[in-house]
Amino acid sequence: MNNPLYRSAIPDFRHVPGSLDRCSCCNNLNLSDISGDKLHEECGVFGVYGHPEAANLAYLGLYSLQHRGQEGAGICSSDGKQLYTEKAMGLVADIFSEKRLKKLPGHAAIGHNRYSTAGSSILKNVQPIVANFALGTLALGHNGNLVNAAELRKTLEDDGAIFQSTSDSEVVVHLIAHSKGESFYERVVHALRQVSGAFSLLILRENELVAVRDPYGVRPLCLGQVDGAYVFASETCALDLIGAKYIRDVEPGEMVIINEQGLTSLKALHSERRAFCVFEFIYFSRPDSYIFGHQNVNSIRKELGRQLARESMVDADIVIPVPDSGVPAALGFSEESGIGFDFGLIRNHYIGRTFIEPKQNIRHFGVKIKLNPVRELLEGKRVVVIDDSIVRGTTSKKIVKMIRENGGAKEVHLRISSPPTIMPCFYGIDTPTRQELIASSHDVDETRKYVTADSLSYLSMEGLLRSVRGAGDYCTACFSNVYPINFPGEHMEQLEFLFK
């Protein structure tokens, strides 16, 4: 569906401030922007049933999925009689001490990493959401976004529902509680048939664990097994850390129920098509993960680089990645082009979320705190720089200038292993507004001039779909403005604000 979501008068990108965000109470740099000019996944989920150290496994699973959300994390466990919850703002390793994990007894647990899109970044929005209702207690963890959450929330509030958070995930909890279904499973299906959007859900009750994936399959969710216990995870890298064996993906529209009777699978939700998020391959998922039919992310990214080289060859002396996400594509580009690969940019992995900027002026300080060029490799060279995407363009501009001025490069050719990002995502990605996406208002040559590169090329849409093996199964809305999941009519012009 091609949705006329946005007003035709789009402000020119040059009018959008390009400075790094700063903490509101001081002059600290916000390094979430330095990470930098990137799109961010919203959440990661992990669940386990039937293991005596369920909470510890959930902790390790969330640790593996930290890249999917760094603002907060939570774990809820069950001992068969009641649920226990621990959650906080911050990183997994900082939140869950041994003492805290001992407060989470039981054989079942679900965990959630959060990077806020819908709902602000505050503790009450950290999941799992725990609630009491007519059939007992449930805890819910959600990866994705509901595009009709505002509409549903208003209806529920008019019916007397009281919300404790601003997260769209709480809407699902209320829909389950308000459902008239006789069984818990009927209530879940009834609730999810009312929502529109992307969701990979884990629901924990006293004696069972339920996993549901939206009928389009937008976000990944897999099933594994370890020591006789069943495990769910957003990505297979979480299975690897705990020694779990991958069984299969949870199918789009499938509900998987695990309890004392074993595993039951129901086809609960239906759609005429699939719409796997193609950006999971480009940037979001970890390279060692297997997603969407057990395809290896690293292999796909290398193929994106090879295809990029076929489409946009350039005479150059060295290929370098923007680390870390650009590394596989840069290797593929190097292999296909025959131009030597090296790490011309070194990344500092040991920075926190804020950093005190020195009072004296240091050029490109925000980028240099994370990346620094290796002059010995770059000086006098024609350099091909591989990155996975350009969002606002501000960080790309600083990197190109840094390679030229600090690294001494003779030429800088920027190659992007995805098509131009022209539209926001409403299915679980923290995307800037359309006005902030440089490719929505600038053609390739205008963008090249802005980032000061000698040349700039993006991967074509055809090349992208060829590399990920199939055109009909992926959501490419951020590149194509074709949104596979319908939006509620009265909210179409408000969506950009609602999900900012």
Topology:
Elements: E1 28-30, H1 31-34, E2 40-41, E3 43-49, H2 54-64, E4 72-78, E5 83-89, H3 92-95, H4 98-101, E6 108-114, E7 129-133, E8 136-146, H5 149-158, H6 169-178, H7 184-192, E9 197-205, E10 208-213, E11 222-226, E12 229-233, H8 237-241, E13 245-249, E14 254-259, E15 262-267, E16 276-277, H9 279-284, E17 290-291, E18 295-296, H10 297-311, E19 318-321, H11 327-337, E20 345-347, E21 354-356, H12 365-368, E22 371-373, H13 375-378, E23 382-387, H14 394-405, E24 411-416, E25 429-430, H15 438-441, H16 444-451, E26 455-458, H17 461-467, E27 474-475, H18 477-480, H19 495-498
Parallel strand pairs: 16-27, 19-23, 23-24, 24-26
Antiparallel strand pairs: 1-21, 2-25, 3-6, 3-12, 4-5, 4-6, 7-8, 8-9, 9-10, 10-14, 11-12, 11-13, 14-15, 17-18, 20-22
Helix pairs in contact: 5-6, 6-7, 10-11
Describe what this molecule looks like in 3D.
Strand 17 and strand 18 (about 295) form a beta hairpin. The protein is built from 19 helices and 27 strands. The chain is elongated, with a radius of gyration of 23 Å. The model is unreliable at about 1-35 and about 495-500 (pLDDT under 50). By secondary structure, it is α+β, with helices and mostly antiparallel strands. The two termini are about 20 Å apart. The chain folds into two domains: about 40-275, Aminohydrolase, N-terminal nucleophile (Ntn) domain (Glutamine Phosphoribosylpyrophosphate, subunit 1, domain 1); about 295-485, Rossmann fold (3-Layer(aba) Sandwich).
